[in-house]
Amino acid sequence: MLHQAGIEETAREFMSEISDPNSSLYGRHWSQEKIIETFAPDQSTIDVVLGWLEEGGIARNRTTLSRARNWLSFTANRDEVESLLHAEYHVFTHESGHSHVACEDYSVPAHIAPYIDIITPTVHFDQRLGESREDTTIPLSADQLKTLKKRISVDLLHPSEEGNPAGDYRHLGRSRQWQLAQARESRQASYPTRQLSRLRYRHHASLPQSPVRDTPGTSHWPKNSLGVVEYTPQAFLQEDLDLFFAQYEPRLVGRPPEVTLYQVGDMVQGGSFNNFLDAVDGSYCTFQGGGSKDPNIDGQYPADRACGTAPLVNVISTSYAYNEGDLSVKYEERQCAEYMKLGLQGVSMVFASGDFGVSGNKNMCFDPLTGAYQHGTLGGIFNPSFPSTCPWVTSVGATEVMEGSTVRSGEVACEKVIRSGGGFSNVFALPDYQKQAVGEYFKNAPVLYGADRYNNSKTTRGYPDVSANGANFATGVNGNFTLSYGTSASAPVFAAILTLINEKRLAAGKSTVGFVNPVLYANPGVFNDIRFGRNPGCSTDGFSAREGWDPVTGLGTPKYRDMESLFMSLP
Question: For the Peptidase S53 domain, which residue ranges apply (predicted)?
């Protein structure tokens, strides 16, 4: 992949103009065509790399330049590539059975390196992505399911205001009332559902109720949209959606809201952020747009592929993540730049911050001696989450209501079942919009750890940016209800809030909110400040929530009405 023209010099300038609430250009988003034209590598970059390939024995007629002029591909045998890159290639087989051609290291001449961002296949294994949560659903027993199903057909559709029903299972009932008796509030504090999220944030924010209309969902304004990313083999079941809607929103059974699903990857080639960006970002796409039918070329499908032609929605929620240490710095920097481009187009990229506190996926930390992964129970160096550490996305942590309290008692950082992911990047610099908030955190927070635990330089990106409730979500899974936990739940909640605000702005003739971080950090008063809780990991207590921004819950949870008013006041 060729280096983009002027990306370092212009990205921050362009983004600050469009996303800065004080800018006269706020909300004037770019077209995809303008982005491709602006950031396409110039001809001199292409010529330098082609010249290097020719010196290495790769003739120009064996190369192909992508339509966006950013990928230069060529066919070569193993000996040619190993000689060109001073590498040794192998076929690596994952425990899942998937094979991948890669090398452990490679090099290019120093005078060529500035013109190239990524070479694949090399050290980028592009493994299947992990969801932000693991084993954080609580299935109900057979007896509980039997009782629950009976109650769904009897009294859950007509809930009383009495106490908990007999038995120790968790009541997943629906209520049409928002102002409930105190005992009812205490019970629902343990079972956040669509109604509880409304009750909690409505108390401070007056979340709007969905109006009844012919086309349910967010189609009140046709151009409004929300996207959810899923990586094969994971996928939703319409039957589970209908199960959920039957209990919580019967009018949506068989006619779900208009949500765009980005189903990425297949059973042969696993899904990854690469696949997703190929679909929505024409300036990134690794394919030429006309499919090669050569069965000898690894990873080729015998059909045409379309680059950047998937519908681009206004808000995209993703509950998957890599550990920042999984990927090379260049790889992460380039993908982060692509999220910046999506923000330039008015798209809000929302990512779950992770569920293992300061540890990475599967509770992994870094061995301080070898740099290799080790389980968090053995201690180690904190393991940040990517893309949450990318400064051009909005990272969402998780909160919960304390057991035995009411939804009006306030929230704390989620740490009973999952731990809200948060910390500081080892790759990305501290963005301008975050400098004051992070500076205040380091000024006021006690010094708990040194550089042997995390990047305490005070100069790198902190995450998460915001939070939402991430505990006890009633979820339909394979025909049954479970209680789910995780930033996989809180991220789409925050994404849905942005979608509601977009609906208001679009109806008023305004643009979408796009990249929201500069606005949010400049207006922390639109959040409920979370001051209690921690995000343990790597055999430490992690960081602690405190007044202002913190690397556990970010700025806090949204006050919808205040946030809506803020964005409606902008051009």
Answer: 195-570
